Amino acid sequence: MTAEPKSASKPSEPTATRCGVVAVIGAPNAGKSTLVNQLVGQKVAITSAKAQTTRARLLGIALHEQTQMILVDTPGIFEPKRKLDRAMVTAAWDGTQSADAVLLMVDPIKQRRHELIPLIEALSKRPERKILVLNKVDKAVKEPLLMLAEELTAGTDFSEVFFISALTGDGVPQMKAALAEMMPKGPWHYPEDQVSDASERLLATEITREQLYQQLHDELPYDSAVRPESYTQRPDGSVEIRQQIVIGRESQKHIVLGKGGRMIKSIGEAARKELSEILGVKVHLFLHVKVSENWAEDKEVFEEMGLDWGR
Ligand SMILES: Nc1nc2c(ncn2[C@@H]2O[C@H](COP(=O)(O)OP(=O)(O)OP(=O)(O)O)[C@@H](O)[C@H]2O)c(=O)[nH]1
């Protein structure tokens, strides 16, 4: 008996992978960075209760089965006053360009319809596919939430509406699966293990800034920055990081330093611990405070943050 002839080899299967860009926009504090971290499955963007925490566009890379989603975390969109604010808002809109889906994130507890109208109108002029995401359902009351969803979608071209909690993850897996379906077929743009486009040096300054915001709560005005000074690997494999905490006024110095230097020590300790965990090596972190009245008008600071000076 002759063996059955093998079927002629089929042409190779068309690629099953998908890859696309999902931009996340919204007012400050809506929960954009929290969502990006949830979708990626690890922390790539810093978050805080302080508005305008995200200052420049950051890419988080999320996977769902055969799909790679490049998530664009953007600064909050608000009425800009200073040059830094304008550059942040420009970076947010730039982040949506040619995205395969734009998510408008809304905090239904704080935001009202009339506050969102200008943003929705600006969004409606854009060609990208738009999705409305009502966040913080863990805290929102059902009836007003549904009413807001109805008001925001009336006469607009949102193709989908999701109700989620970026903080607890409620509703996020379902939304992630739906987003993955919307991505175009094609090869992945990033290696499987890459989770963000930020350098370790930039991530390190962001982690310190997050601690600064978290530990000083409302005592420190939004008027501060963390600048990298050096980032070097020691022969034993550990990393030595030096950073500058820049504040706008001399009178803020004692707030950051704390009594007997206790505050800056605590900020440094928490940031060092978190960085060691993320980088998987021992970290030596040295912080010092510098007063610079005009740091928010400094081209070099803008460029370090990934913002465009010229616009
Ligand atoms: N209760 C609750 N809080 C949330 C949720 N998502 C985000 N938050 C909180 O809301 C605050 C702002 O979250 P972020 O992710 O920093 O918000 P953002 O939109 O990136 O803010 P900007 O950087 O200012 O544009 C933080 O204190 C988060 O913990 C949520 O689903 N539920």
Automatic annotation (TrEMBL):
Keywords from the named record: Cell membrane, Cytoplasm, GTP-binding, Membrane, Nucleotide-binding, Ribosome biogenesis, RNA-binding, rRNA-binding
Looking at the keywords, is Amino-acid biosynthesis present? no
* Region listing for G5, in residue ranges: 164-166
Q: Which residues form a coiled coil?
A: none
Location(s), subcellular? Cytoplasm; Cell membrane
G3: region residues: 73-76
Question: How does the protein associate with the membrane?
Answer: Peripheral membrane protein
Instruction: Name the segments for region: G1.
Output: 26-33
Q: Where is this region: G2?
A: 52-56
Which Gene Ontology terms describe the biological processes this protein takes part in?
A: ribosomal small subunit assembly
Q: Gene name, please?
A: era
Looking at the record, which segments are called G4? 135-138
Give the family, as the similarity comment puts it. Belongs to the TRAFAC class TrmE-Era-EngA-EngB-Septin-like GTPase superfamily. Era GTPase family.
User: Where does the record place the Era-type G domain?
Assistant: 18-185
Q: What is this protein called?
A: GTPase Era
